[in-house]
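Budget justification aside, the reviewers requested a transparent look at the raw inputs and outputs of the sequence design task funded under Objective 1. We therefore reproduce one unedited record. The lines immediately below are the structure tokens for a 425-residue chain.
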């Protein structure tokens, strides 16, 4: 059989070609490994800052079919070249025999696996972003040189995908659960403060929550009736110094608008009203929302409309509660309070293991603010949990035990649970 001439300079040329061939196998293998494992968000950030190599990485990953076709074509082409050249050189040196062929096959396979596959992948992934940026432009050049061949090869997987009705995966690069995990890891590693972690988790929960979960419920609404004089309104304001008051006709289910204390002060300052004037001329129109509305959507609507308060309606059209812009913002940044109100805190720490909580505090807020794990159920507030656990209207001093916690009712307001002391046992 004919063999490659290996005498003199040809031998050195063959060895150089062999080494270059293995190197190119390693190049394509490592490029595939690192570009598929690189941090896409970091690359996007660098590309947006004008990094040309990061932009090349983005372009490659946007053409995955052509990228895979280029890598597979390059790998196989140089694996075949390496195997053929090594076999020809061995047969020329050792003579044609079955033993020589088996030996060469084993040695070439080991060499390609070790130096063309395993080692390049390990090194590439270890170097990570630096290596991805280094190989992106050379690989993109190869993709352009092989454009027509690569395009033809990419047609086959596309046809197979269409034949079986497979759709391109358009799932998000990162899920909400993964984001939460990254935030927690960031806190553990010291890159995210605890307060920042809590706020970020609140942001992720924000859009999915319903108005009914955060609204000021109907029993806690302080409202005024249309036709009320400013003199009578002052008495209401003395007992509940809020900045806005819903105004109703006949009953609370028929809210017609709301009164802003700023409008009252402005009108008094301009001499347009006096103590005997009706509040009706100062009312702003009411904005109604269903209790099932997502608070993320509501926040956007209130900002675009310029509204500070919305009336929450139940499925029967009755008033379920009210929600203010401050209440929505508090779901992210924590309690702010009405700018004019003298509102007591929802909870007060007594000592390291004891805290006094208002019964009206939402159960999710209790768990979040106090780092507890009270179970969800057919109730929304701490008072609801107490009623559910006892099965009757409690008296002051009654207690509930749950998962290492002792909850004691310390104040009743008629049939309402006013305050509860929670103690860790």
């Amino acid at each position: 059989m004919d063999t490659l001439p290996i005498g003199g300079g040809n031998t050195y040329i063959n060895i150089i070609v062999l080494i270059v061939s293995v190197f190119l196998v390693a190049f394509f293998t490592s490029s595939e490994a690192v570009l598929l494992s690189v941090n896409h968000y970091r690359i996007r950030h660098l590309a947006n800052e004008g990094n040309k190599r990061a932009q090349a990485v983005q372009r490659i990953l946007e053409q995955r079919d052509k990228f895979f076709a280029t890598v597979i074509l390059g790998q196989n082409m140089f694996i075949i070249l390496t195997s053929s050249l090594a076999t020809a050189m061995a047969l020329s040196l050792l003579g044609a025999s079955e033993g020589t062929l088996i030996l060469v096959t084993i040695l070439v396979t080991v060499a390609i696996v070790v130096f063309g596959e395993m080692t390049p992948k390990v090194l590439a992934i270890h170097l990570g972003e630096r290596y991805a940026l280094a190989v992106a432009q050379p690989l993109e050049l190869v993709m352009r040189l092989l454009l027509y061949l690569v395009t033809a090869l990419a047609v086959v997987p596309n046809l197979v995908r269409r034949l079986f009705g497979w759709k391109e995966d358009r799932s998000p690069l990162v899920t909400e659960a993964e984001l939460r995990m990254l935030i927690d890891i960031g806190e553990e590693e010291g890159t995210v403060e605890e307060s920042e972690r809590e706020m970020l988790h609140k942001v992720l929960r924000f859009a999915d929550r319903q108005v009914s979960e955060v609204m000021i419920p109907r029993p806690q609404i302080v409202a005024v009736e249309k036709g009320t004089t400013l003199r009578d309104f002052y008495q209401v304001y003395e007992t509940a110094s809020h900045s806005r008051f819903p105004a109703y006709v006949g009953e609370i289910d028929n809210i017609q608008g709301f009164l802003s204390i700023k409008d009252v002060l402005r009108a008094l300052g301009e001499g347009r009203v006096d103590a005997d004037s009706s509040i009706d001329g100062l009312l702003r129109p009411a904005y109604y929302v269903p209790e099932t509305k997502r608070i993320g959507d509501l926040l956007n609507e209130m900002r675009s409309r310029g509204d500070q308060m919305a009336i929450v309606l139940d499925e029967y059209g009755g008033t379920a509660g009210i929600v203010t812009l401050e209440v929505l913002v508090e779901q992210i940044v924590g309690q702010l309070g009405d700018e004019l109100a003298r509102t007591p805190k929802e909870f007060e720490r007594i000592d390291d293991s004891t805290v006094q909580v208002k019964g009206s505090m939402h159960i999710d807020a209790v768990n979040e603010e106090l780092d507890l794990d009270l179970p969800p159920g057919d109730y929304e507030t701490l008072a609801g949990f107490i009623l559910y656990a006892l099965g009757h209207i409690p008296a002051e001093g009654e207690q509930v035990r749950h998962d290492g916690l002792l909850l004691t009712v310390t104040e009743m307001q008629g049939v309402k649970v006013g305050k509860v002391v929670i103690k860790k046992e």
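The first helix runs from residue 9 to 37. Confidence is low (pLDDT under 50) at residues 1-9. Computational costs for records of this kind are itemized in the attached budget.
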